[in-house]
Amino acid sequence: MNTIPSFPASFNALTGYRPLRWQTRLFKRLRNGAIPRVCDLPTGLGKTSVIPIWLIALADQGRASVVPRRLVYIVDRRTVVDQATQIVERMRERLRNPGDPRWAARKETLRALGRSLRALSATGKADDPFAVSTLRGELADNQEWKADPTRPAIVVGTIDMIGSKLLFSGYGDGSYHRAHHAGLIGQDALIVHDEAHLTPALSDLLKGVADTQQHTGTLQPVHVMELSATQRESHDDRDVLRLQAEDNNDAIVRDRLHATKHLRLHEVNEDDVIPKLVELARQHDTPPSKVLIYVQSPEQAQKVAQGLKNELGSAADGRVAVLTGTIRGNERDQLVDGNTVYRALLDRETRVEQTVYLVSTSAGEVGIDLDADHIVCDVTTLDAMIQRFGRVNRRGGKGRTASVSVVARHGDPEGKRAADEFGRPIQETKAILERWTAESDGMVNVSPRNLRRLLAKLSVDERLGAFSPKPDVPPLTDILLDAWSLTSIDEMPGRPEVAAYLHGLTHDPPETYVVWRKEVARLNEAQVDRVALRDWFRACRVQPRERLRDRTERIRKQLTTLLSARQGEARGRDFAVVVLDERGEAEWSQLSRIIEKEFNLAYRTVVLPVEAGGIDQGGMLDASATASQTEIDVAEDGTGDDRRERWLDIRTAQAEHYYERLLTGERADILPSALREQERIVLKEQPEVVEGEGEALDLILMVSPRTSALQDPEAARVRQTLREHTNLIVEHMRRIARGLGLEKPIQDALVTAARWHDRGKDREVWQRYARNQDGAEPLAKSMKHLHPRALGYYRHEFGSLLEAEASAELRNHAERDLILHLIAAHHGWTRPHFEPRAFDKSRTTADNTEASLEAMRRFGRLQQRFGHWGLAWLESLVRCADIIASKEAAGKVVYSSKKRESRHEDA
């Protein structure tokens, strides 16, 4: 058992605050392995503190902990910036620099926590006490979480990114990563679903996953915890953490529960809603205050913002900001980092000299610690209204009273909105608000405590009738999981995409993403095929900062307007576009084609050429926008370990050879020495017999060394013998297996698989591919490789499998099935198959065929035994040992890009 300072001291050291009583109760439950399924707590009481609470519980118990080693924090995709990321950043900084003067008084506690957390990493390579990966902002997925499975890790992600990975269908993941990601998220993890009532389909899915794992007896089943201030359904008290009478003794809880918020309802005609919102907002011009204005659509947000600017005139500068979920990630980050209005509402202590106005859609309802002085809004569903109330006078305090002005449309909108699936809940919500205000002489206090009292008086039917409709969710079945787990098959008839299981079938309108890339035109000119296109976008993945998101119907309408505008400039003009599906598979299309109604754009990513334009300086889709190409394409906005650049390799018939940066056009004689080549696509081959004409042209992706090693550990450019690499991975595998406390037979199977996994590289064909001289000691890694065609599609892991199957050493091993599968699967194949072209040509066709068939049968047996995620996790452990070994080897060499050759996936 590990020893660290007390929970109050540890919590204070990590957060700067003393723990509340409910936080102490949650810590005790986590430490004892009694993880609650639901934390039902009012907005504003710091539910995201589950992160430091989990981290302290893990540190307190060390390697014998019943607490999962990874925390996966899922936020609604509408969130711009969430409290989870802020908490993680602050904690990591404190643990990295315990002696910082700002918290030096707690340095010994921080050092003790850091030592305990670092000790969990079995490889001994952890500089930071825990790994952090997120899908947004400065912590853009750095992939730390997927390298060392013994190291504590926090993964913050969206529903689509985390949910798809959990279902073996991660966006942009190839066969190598699908099972790897599913195993690491679906085992030994606490999955925290924030504001779960807003995304009930995901709640059902996560419950289904947890229940499935419990019934199949998987190795390290996940635990799921929902955070919500607004529960749709009742739960067994044993599964729920709620406030208790003792919590009233906490001053912070008292202040926030009693924070006064006076709600008044204003009814107007349909055409007067926007003017009324502007009028009510302007009523708070004196004294200076922070006003938050909520509406339901981006179009309404723009109209309200423009109305305020018209009213304020020249005094509007720096006082009005717009926050919608349709802003591109790059501009969202800029808004979070630099917009004075937004920053003012984030910081309660900030005083404004003039009233500021933040106009927001639902993007500002969830996951953002906004604290407005007053709110003006239209009527939406009851669950969303509760979220809005939580963003005003959030912390309460003596003498602080907020105004909540709600604008409702007169009467019943007949079939216009009542027939809409969201229209009826909105009408029910309006009726409830009318009743509440009528009972209170036109004004009702919606403080958290009073609001809970009012909600408790509603019948179950009234409550559910006013909530946003819960979507129908197809059941999670073994047949579906089997289909998704067949990750070595890219396309399989009858295998559904995962969107319906993440978002439900009917109620949430589908969404589409738009990205701008400069290489699209180049790739189209070269007429690269689907395989090359797929490989490029798997290597040069679309980052969250590049993506603009909106409802599919709005995207289609905007793209139609965009094409019409461009055709007005040049008759008949069209643009080649790339369409990425949920699994990251890429295909060519035309802009004129994808805007047709029958084209399926739901949950697809449209990659436009920069020449098409269509994004304004605020990061919104706008056909009239005229931003420069370097502003439109933000794919290279990275520094340090996240840095990546795209270059053209140009070789002319006159023997000139130079490089040109794709985005900026700058020329260079050599590629950046600090980066490594990750992908190369041939755009043009030089004519063999055309004197003085023609050029050869390649598109190259350059990334940081760490990114290269994490993305594809086999791509590490280092000369390493097979014996050296095997010894290294065996040692790391032994440490990982021991550190996770696995049963001895499983530990032995993992170590044995690591010892055998690369035996198939000791083949003449593979050594020739690695440019190893005849008679030299066999290599596992090389600084240079021939073109993959030199392998004839041979897969070294299939060769390793054949050797292991014939080995007398393994013939009677109790875990022979598992060992053979782990050997075969360490590059993502044999889930369930190998392609016949991967066969070992030094063996007979009969031997190859039988080994391939048995690999499929073996996969089925093992998945039945360990469960879908349990088997994927075991595969991931071998892969992690390989990644660590490859990173360690790569770190010992100096990489030169002066004479660079094509980098291809090691086979």
What does this structure look like?
The protein folds into five domains: 7-242, Rossmann fold; 251-466, P-loop containing nucleotide triphosphate hydrolases (Rossmann fold, 3-Layer(aba) Sandwich), CATH 3.40.50.300; 509-632, no CATH class; 644-703, no CATH class; 711-890, Hypothetical protein af1432. It is 39% helix and 15% strand. A seven-stranded parallel beta sheet has the order 3-4-2-5-6-1-7, with helices on both faces. It has a seven-stranded mixed beta sheet with strand order 10-11-9-12-13-8-14, sandwiched between helices. Strands 16-15-19-17-18 form a five-stranded mixed beta sheet. Helix 26 crosses helix 33 (868-890), helix 29 runs antiparallel to helix 31 (816-825) and helix 31 crosses helix 32 (845-866). The two termini are 44 Å apart. Mean pLDDT is 88; it is low at 413-419 and 892-907.
